[in-house]
């Protein structure tokens, strides 16, 4: 038998007292091994009467299955049944008892039952898989439990399902812990441990690891693993889908098209989930024509679009700015007998609110309510945020009150929208009262809500209060985001404390909590120029370019305000254009040329040639790529 997974760098579980000995003692003293020894058999809870059928004696296995199927089984009933089992009871009973105890009010008893079974035969791969599936252990503790179990029970032979459950647990531990470590463990299990047990990975094994690699941003490794899967004779859309999604999220339409063609060549059966991924991803990349081609191909292959398909289509259309088209698709859903879900309505409402078409959002809201959809916290928050952004705070507060009356508890995003809206219309006292109410009802502020509060306080000249909020946020362990840094740096620069803003900027770079954007650089550059410190402003601009953060029109106007639009201004802008071109950032260079033309500053002929050649070259390449993509999806 292959050795257990001893090489995994995971902590070993502590051995529990023998449950078999405790159960034997229970038979002698008629008391549960998990209850105080002073308990008598008169205090025991009898087996529930509903576990036994009305006619005919139940088999032990049927009783165990009934206990496992119970929504909330009693631990006392399970233990009482365990004490009454004969010594030669079937080992198939124990996986059901493990499952029942795992769902009981004392779930750790399931762990003790598995590790200390009443008979050696009780420890089988069935009970092991039941333990892996149902134990209430955190995901990162299941791998050490897996290793410990194999060492403890020499006759235990895990199945492929056991390893699939283990991989699922390992990969679900990626977010709170070190992704590199856990990905390496997952790959080691796939490539070394599973083959050592003479098992062959299936589509669930590969799809779990491929999905984890794609979610961690290791798309190239995910593609390599997909090719390895195909070589091993496994072709499953479940493994291709996460890679397609990751590629399209990164804007790699060409790579996604190649991978889709590879799927077709290998005879992979496309599922509705595959088409949903393609539709949503293509729309996010602005490829509406190709997305419609996918929709037609889907219908031609006999796959009927469902709620998930329409949801992906609506959300993708909204995110690429085609909200009216998204609403038309939602209306077509009703004509085809599919009622739009809360997700569909929230996407459309948020889209109209983002484009400042609040009245259209309200009409969608009315249609939703008339259709019998009860608004949830996401829908209320989206509508309230839209009203608040447009300064319609009376309507926003009325909807907020309606939300509370409907027993739908506002969350931190709802309160943040109200706070931002009142700061926007200049009513800081009302904004602060909503903040106090948010804290009073138990909503924990996040980085976004702190940023909104600090920005509002800085805008009304209360920098000292904003700095106190900043300190409170750090004391609570809430990592500031780019918006939070922007708010405080802006407040410091507006108060003439540019050095303080630069120190906070250096702290931002050192901690790495957030990445500075063009807005932060412009705030600092404006502060330095107003302080007549042009050399430091130029140094900061150089750093901005080195960090691959492109200057914009505001950046140019800040410097032109100091050096003027005459010869010095032309030399400065031309130098900026050439530095961007040398870094192959032609789009940003073109934006600077547009600023020059708006200021009636004519660039040198060599500048024109360099920028136009770079921009046209890129556009030509993208045009060819778009044509190839359209040819692939042509029905």
Oligomer: single chain
In helices, the fraction of residues equals 55-70%
Ends distance? 54 Å
The major beta sheet can be summarized as: none
Number of helices, where a helix is a run of at least 4 consecutive DSSP H or I residues: 33
> Which structural class do you get from the secondary structure elements?
mainly alpha
Identify low-pLDDT runs. Answer: 3-57
- What Rg, in angstroms, do the CA atoms define? 32 Å
Name the beta content range: under 5%
**Large-scale geometry:** globular
Structure overview:
The chain is an all-alpha fold. Helix content is 68%, strand content 0%. It has 33 helices and no strands. It has helices at 19-29, 60-69, 75-84, 93-102, 108-115, 125-134, 142-152, 160-172, 179-196, 203-215, 219-231, 237-249, 253-265, 272-284, 288-300, 307-319, 323-335, 342-354, 358-370, 377-389, 393-405, 412-424, 428-440, 447-459, 463-475, 482-494, 498-511, 518-530, 534-546, 553-563, 567-582, 586-598, 605-633. Helix 16 (307-319) runs parallel beside helix 18 and helix 24 packs antiparallel against helix 25. The radius of gyration is 32 Å and the shape is globular. Mean pLDDT is 80; it is low at 3-57.
């Amino acid at each position: 038998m292959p050795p257990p997974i001893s090489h995994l760098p995971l902590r070993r579980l502590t051995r529990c007292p023998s449950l078999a000995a405790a159960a034997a003692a229970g038979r002698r003293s008629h008391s549960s091994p998990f209850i105080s020894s002073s308990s008598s058999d008169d205090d025991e809870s009898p087996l529930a009467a509903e576990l036994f059928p009305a006619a005919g004696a139940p088999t032990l296995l049927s009783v165990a299955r009934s206990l496992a199927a119970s929504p909330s089984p009693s631990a006392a009933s399970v233990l009482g049944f365990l004490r009454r089992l004969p010594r030669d009871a079937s080992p198939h009973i124990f996986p059901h008892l493990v499952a029942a105890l795992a769902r009981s009010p004392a779930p750790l008893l399931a762990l003790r039952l598995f590790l200390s079974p009443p008979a050696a035969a009780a420890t089988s791969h069935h009970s092991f898989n039941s333990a892996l599936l149902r134990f209430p252990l955190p995901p990162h503790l299941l791998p050490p439990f897996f290793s410990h179990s194999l060492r403890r029970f020499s006759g235990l032979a895990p199945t492929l399902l056991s390893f699939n459950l283990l991989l699922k647990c390992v990969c679900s531990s990626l977010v709170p812990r070190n992704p590199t470590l856990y990905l390496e463990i997952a790959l080691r299990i796939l490539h070394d441990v599973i083959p050592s047990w003479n098992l062959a990975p299936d589509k669930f094994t590969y799809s779990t690891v491929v999905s984890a690699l794609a979610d961690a941003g290791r798309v190239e490794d995910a593609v390599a693993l997909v090719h390895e899967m195909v070589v091993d004779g496994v072709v499953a859309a479940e493994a291709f889908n996460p890679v397609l999604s990751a590629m399209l999220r990164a804007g790699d339409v060409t790579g996604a098209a190649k991978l889709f063609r590879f799927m077709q060549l290998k005879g992979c059966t496309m599922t509705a989930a595959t088409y949903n991924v393609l539709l949503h991803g293509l729309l996010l990349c602005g490829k509406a024509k190709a997305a419609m081609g996918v929709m037609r191909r889907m219908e031609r292959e006999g796959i009927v679009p469902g709620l998930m398909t329409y949801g992906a289509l609506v959300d993708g259309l909204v995110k690429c700015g085609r909200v009216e088209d998204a609403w038309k698709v939602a209306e077509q859903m009703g004509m085809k007998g599919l009622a739009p879900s809360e997700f569909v309505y929230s996407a459309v409402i948020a889209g109209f609110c983002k484009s400042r078409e609040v009245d259209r959002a309200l009409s969608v809201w009315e249609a939703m309510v008339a259709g019998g959809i009860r608004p949830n916290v996401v829908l209320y928050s989206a509508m309230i945020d839209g009203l608040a952004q447009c300064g319609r705070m009376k309507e926003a507060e009325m909807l907020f009150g309606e939300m509370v009356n409907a027993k739908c508890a506002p969350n931190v995003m709802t309160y943040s929208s109200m706070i931002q809206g009142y700061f926007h219309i200049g009513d800081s006292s009302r904004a602060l009262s909503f903040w106090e109410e948010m804290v009073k009802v138990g909503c924990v502020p996040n980085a976004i809500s702190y940023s909104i509060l600090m920005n509002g306080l800085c805008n009304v000249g209360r920098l000292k209060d904003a700095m106190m909020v900043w300190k409170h946020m750090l004391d609570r362990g809430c990592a500031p985001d780019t918006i939070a840094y922007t708010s405080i740096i802006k407040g410091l620069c507006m108060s003439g404390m540019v050095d303080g803003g630069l120190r906070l900027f250096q702290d931002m770079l050192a901690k790495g909590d957030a990445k500075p954007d063009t807005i932060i650089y412009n705030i600092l550059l404006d502060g330095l120029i107003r302080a007549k410190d042009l050399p430091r402003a130029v140094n900061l601009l150089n750093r901005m370019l080195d960090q691959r953060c492109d200057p914009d029109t505001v950046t140019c106007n800040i410097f032109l305000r100091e050096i003027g639009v005459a010869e010095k201004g032309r030399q400065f802008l031309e130098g900026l254009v050439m530095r961007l071109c040398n870094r192959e950032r032609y789009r940003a260079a073109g934006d600077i040329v547009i600023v020059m033309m708006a200021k009636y500053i004519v660039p040198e002929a060599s500048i024109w040639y360099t920028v136009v050649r770079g921009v046209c070259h890129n556009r030509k390449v993208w045009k060819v790529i778009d044509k190839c993509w359209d040819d692939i999806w042509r029905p």
